[in-house]
Design brief:
ABC transporter involved in vitamin B12 uptake, BtuC, two-stranded antiparallel ribbon, globular
Length: 444
Amino acid sequence: MSTNIAARPGSKGDGNGNGNGDGKGAGAVAERVRRKLSYPVVLLIIAGALVLLSLLRVVTDANQLTASGQYSSALAAAVPIGLAGLGGLWAERAGVINIGLEGMMMLGAFAAGWVGWQYGPWAAALAGIIGGALGGLLHAVATVTFGVDHIVSGVAINILALGVVQYLAKLWFGAEGSAAAEAGGNDKQSPPMDDMPTFTVPGLADGLQSIEKHHWFLVSDLAGILGAFVDEVSWLTVLAVVIFAASFFLLWRSPFGLRLRSCGESPVAAETLGVNVYTYKYAAVVVSGALAGLGGAFLAIGVHIYQDQQTGGRGYIGLATMIFGNWRPGGVAMGAGLFGFMDALQLRAGGPTVHALLLLVAVLLVGVAVWKLRAGTRAARVQALVSVVVAVGLLVWYFSTDTVPLEFVEMTPYVTTLLVLSLAAQRLRAPKAVGKPYRRGQGT
């Protein structure tokens, strides 16, 4: 089965997704860059980033930048964001915008807290999946069956979920004389649950920790980063990695995935070829909710309790990772890692380390400016000029101060979200029919 793919911005489409413009537009540049990102190039980018991070640590003496504890925290922060982003990817690849990821995470976190203190963390994870899936089912009924605007439905689910979990927390956790209240629960949180099991590679973890303590250039930095992946890693994190890999193979390497993605590109064409578009949209949105619910459960299991307002906007950041990742699982994972790193940085390292990042961002913006100038277009030159101006401002800030105010440190994950999306905007391509209403037989 094949579907029409819209031409990218900056080129004139011929109906088959082939641009016949002059090749100098931003879309043409983005397409050339995308084609060059083979696995060796990606590995070179990762190696360059590691060298740059090591140089920054040496120059600024900010050892937290490559500490194993920093990356352990980043991994824990990235998993719920990544699962929410992957959930959004499933829905939008089938043509349904899922703004309700935040609400579905709330439902998953509450369900995990309710079940977890009674039956343990694995039961909590399963309950979180079910809670999120119920939210996804509600969104599917509203958007697919009744044709409600996707944005309106998603916002309504976020508001509804917040009210539901707060009411049920008062009813089940905070009721005077209840078993939950006697076990330590109240109207803002659930009773504590048991720890989720973790795994460690004993010899390798100890060896990497020993190398990290020497603070050797590059070697210790690499040891610190790798140490986070072999020391006390939650089995839920391993499950999340498996889910990402399975999603890629299922959506891009199976007939099921081809049919599901066709519903997001051209549902009318898919229908004419015998695809039950409603079924695939329902399946995608329910899976989307289940993944977001698992992300919410991860938050509750990680701190052993459900707490009011526990998701903290991670559903929205997950949506940003989906866009940054260009609606691909690998891109979502990279975006979640970046936002998780920044989230962990503002929690663990504070002002001095974030202050060191000002220098890194300034250098990266200069690199962006050089890359934009290669495009040769007027818009690219303007963007290059803006990048240079911002880079100079950051350098002035870095050399004239010793730390970053706490208020800005707390803003770091959200500022990163805006910067990354603004820089990645030109290479993005959403599914062609995402958010558009569909009715069976409308193409006949």
